[in-house]
Amino acid sequence: MTTNNNPAATTSQDDPVEAIVRAAESALTVRRRYQFFVWTQSYLSRLLPHQLAVCGSYDRSARELLFDVFNSVSLDPVLMDALGDNRSLLMQHWQARWLEARGRPAAIATADLAFASLGTARDALLAAGFDGVLVHGVSRPQRPQEIESFFIFASQDSTTLAALGSRLELLLPHIHGAWQRVQAVERDVVGISAPQPSAIRVGGVTQREREILSWLREGKSNQQIAEELGISALTVKNHVQKILRKLNAANRAQAVAQAMSLQLLDRPVLSVLPRPNHAG
C-alpha cells in the first residue's frame, strides 16, 4: 500500500469531508468480519492510511476484551501474539498511554517502548516499518478505565498517520459502531451454525492454497509468491484461479476477505484477563 507524506492528500484527491461522509455511510452496511476488513482497506484507508489495524471489543459474556489483527504486511509471530493478547505488556502499554491522554487519540512512537521487556515487540514493529502507532478507543460513560473498544492503527509512514488524530476522532463513532455490529452478528452466526472443519473442507481449499492466500493477504505478486514457495509463477497463477473459483470470488481482495470470513487464515483468539463486572 502506498502512502503520501502530505496528510491532506491521503484521501486520493477526495475532499476529506466528503470522504468522511462516504466512510460513515458505507460503515452502516458492515455486518461481517470480512466486510469490515474490506471497509478498512477501502474507505477507511483513504482517510487513515495504514498497513496494520488491531481492533478490540469488550465481550460482556466472557468478561474480557478480545482483539482481532488485520495486517497487510508480514509480521513476526511473536508480535502477532502480543497484538492479539490484552495481557501482553505491549497492549497494556498502549492502553495506558491512551488513558493518560484522557481518551483522546494518541500518537505513540515505537522508540518509546524502552522497557527491556518490550524490546522484542519494539524490534518487530521497527522491522515491519512501523515507527509509531495511532490509538483511540471508547470507554464506558463516567468510567474511563473500563474500555469498551480499542483501536490501533500503524502505517509505514508514521509521520502522516500521527498527524491524522483529528480525523480518527471524527471517524471513531463509525469505526466503533461497525466493529460492535460485527461482533454481535458474528456471535449470532456462530451461535446458529458454527462452521465445522469438515464444512470448510467442502470447498476443497488445500493447505498449499492457504499458503498462497496468506501471501495474497500481504499483497505479493504471483512472481513474489513463486519465489517464496520455490514454484513457477504459472503454477501460482493456476492456484489463484482455483482459489477464486472455490471461494466464489471475483478478485484477490474478495478471496482474502472470504478466506478470513471462513477463518482459513485466522489463529484462535487468545484469552485475556477478566475485569470486574460492574452493574449498570
From TrEMBL:
Signal peptide: none annotated. The keyword DNA-binding applies. Residues 198-263 form the HTH luxR-type domain. SMART domains: HTH_LUXR. It holds the Pfam family GerE. InterPro entries: Sig_transdc_resp-reg_C-effctor, Tscrpt_reg_LuxR_C, WH-like_DNA-bd_sf. Gene3D superfamilies: Winged helix-like DNA-binding domain superfamily/Winged helix DNA-binding domain (1.10.10.10). Keywords: DNA-binding, Transcription, Transcription regulation. SUPFAM superfamilies: C-terminal effector domain of the bipartite response regulators. It comes from the Bacteria. The keyword Transferase does not apply. This is Response regulator transcription factor.
